[in-house]
Protein: NAD-binding 3-hydroxyacyl-CoA dehydrogenase
Organism: Tepidicaulis marinus
Amino acid sequence: MGNINDVADLSTEGEIAVLTLNSPPVNALSAPVREGIFEGIKKAAADSAVKAIVLICDGRTFIAGADITEFGKKPTGPSLFDAQDMIENASVPVIAAIHGTALGGGLEVALTCHYRVAVPSAKCGLPEVNLGLLPGAGGTQRLPRIVGPEKALEMVTTGQHVPAKKCLEMGLVDELAEEGKLREGAIAFAKKVVAENRPLKKVREMNGKVEAARGKPEIFENFRKSIARKTRGFLAPEYNIQCIEAAVNKPFDEGIKVERELFTKLVTGEQSAAQRHVFFAERQVWKVPGIDKDTKRIPIEKVGIIGAGTMGGGISMNFANAGIPVTIVERDQAPLDKGLATIRKNYENTAKKGRISMDDVEKRTGLIQGTTDMKALADCDLVIEAVFENMDVKQDIFRQLDEICKPGAILATNTSALDIDEIASVTKRPEAVIGLHFFSPANVMRLLEVVRADKTSKEVIATSMDLAKKIGKIAALVGVCPGFVGNRILAQRQREANKLILEGAMPWDVDRVLYDFGLPMGPFAMSDLAGLDLGWRKENSKGETIRDVLCEMDRRGQKTGAGFYDYDENRKATPSKIVEDIIKDFSEKKQIQRRDISDQEILERCVYPMINEGFKILEEGKAIRASDIDIVWINGYGWPVYRGGPMYYGEKIVGLDKVLAKMQEFQKAHGDDFEPAALLEKAVKEGKSLSELGY
Ligand code: 3H9
């Protein structure tokens, strides 16, 4: 038999042919892989000595889907449908042998096979929705025919990877093979199929489960309602639902037409392009120039946290969750006890929701020890300081750490605002000092800004990035500057939001525009949630800002039942007449002539300076690449994934020339807050994209 092409090999074991694909890293369905399947199955089936064919993959996984890098390019060679038809219409049974993950187009190929065998560690799923797509190779029509429309709806709208054992229960997999012995297991299964003369089972012909759901539109209506909140703004979930609806209500071939039409709309649309950008950005963000697998890592077996407050507690939980012992240090026993009790309560609440067991609660709290003695940190491999933001206090702590901690330990600060070079300067080992900026609640939020200071060593950076992955974060490496990347960009939006309400908009106008844009909430709703008195002191208040006035009136946000908005007992917000009057009064006092401000202006005033700031960050070298900034804003601030992140949005959706022109127009009208970044001007002048400019 032999090689079909560079990525496909055909061999035989008695009367069973084995078609093996090998296209690293994930056997995606590139042109050669499609050709390998098409030609391989054709050749095997044409051999009268072959009674069944096993389709199996080498490397870490079964086919993980269509080759995403090929989208938008002209297809070559046999299409995926050609390859699938070849399998489904083969004259002998074809058995998919699954390890790793059968995802997207990969599972769709397996669904055209007549049988499926998997090892217990394998997983199957249709995750296209996460790329702003739907399964476009028959997945939406075949999946519900096996698992029923309800389970299919859940799978295609969440993209979940379903473990093999569950797949077996759902009928998606016909048999489990012994772990590590997939090839043998699949061949044995194939022999059984031949010996028992089992039929060529075509999923497209299995109509029982879809017919049973016909005439029950409530299945879909209820499902739509149940996911509405989570999928707000996204097109793909709804299109996926429409395809499953078609599978239920139309014959197979008609359903395929619906799938094709909706897939085409999505794959050529703005949202999917943005979501595909995010997919690659999430992988790119881990790559740090100058650091590779040979860079030395520092083994982290024990972690110290200074501060048992909300931040310190949340950070500790990350490590305990990953099985790493933690020592928390507080100055006094009372706040320490309070912090430890909060951690236990958080775990118990998670257990109540069924996400972890009570056993886990004990195990994890058991890994967290509290003490008031800094010296207990002597044997920690990493210490993270998480006390309040004050340079003197932090420097004092780092002086002590320098004395106490063992050589080679990483000394990290969770500061979100202070100069880490200044903190590092009080130690004799500035190369060991790094910023690990967690976002609140630290045990929940995925983002971690890893902040490299001037002298931070490569080993310390590499270890921090690895550790971030280990504790389930997505980490972006950034440089020292006020607010680092995330908050520095946020400050731009905040400044404009505050100006806009003096010029004529109301807080609820600004919030509505940003919410409709896709952010989880606008800046004023956010302030009310966080508490307007965060960082505010009565004795320092001079009534000079709207916030001062609101705090003095005890309108301190949701917790006091009023802030920028009024809140009812269910914390439902309504615009406040009192606040409206206060704002108008402020405008008058500042002699600002209020005017009508359009939604578009609100959006552009808030968002374009953020993009512009991103350019400044890049030109100053405070982020490695533009897509890292997108990752920060998506994972730390809820920027809508379907708009790709602020940098992607500016470049690929709005257009840099338009962003620059608006910044110039705003600069003329409102001053130098809108001064365009030199790099933005350069990109537009030279007609170059950020990636062409090396970002
Ligand atoms: C689809 O199938 C559409 C069809 O329905 C319809 C067609 C008509 N293509 O994640 P990793 C790269 S849509 C190209 O770090 P892991 C990835 O960029 C597709 N490249 O590994 C990375 O490259 P690099 C539906 C891909 O072990 C490298 O492989 N399928 C693809 O942590 C390793 O990836 C999906 O959405 C691809 N499809 O996780 C599955 N996938 O090394 C997407 C990966 O240069 N993939 N790469 O940075 C995944 O979820 C994970 O990659 C997987 C492995 C779980 C498979």
The mean pLDDT is 97. The pocket of (S)-3-Hydroxyhexanoyl-CoA is lined by residues 25-26, 28, 61, 64-69, 80, 101, 103-105, 108, 127-128, 131, 133, 135-137, 139, 280, 283 (CB under 6 Å).
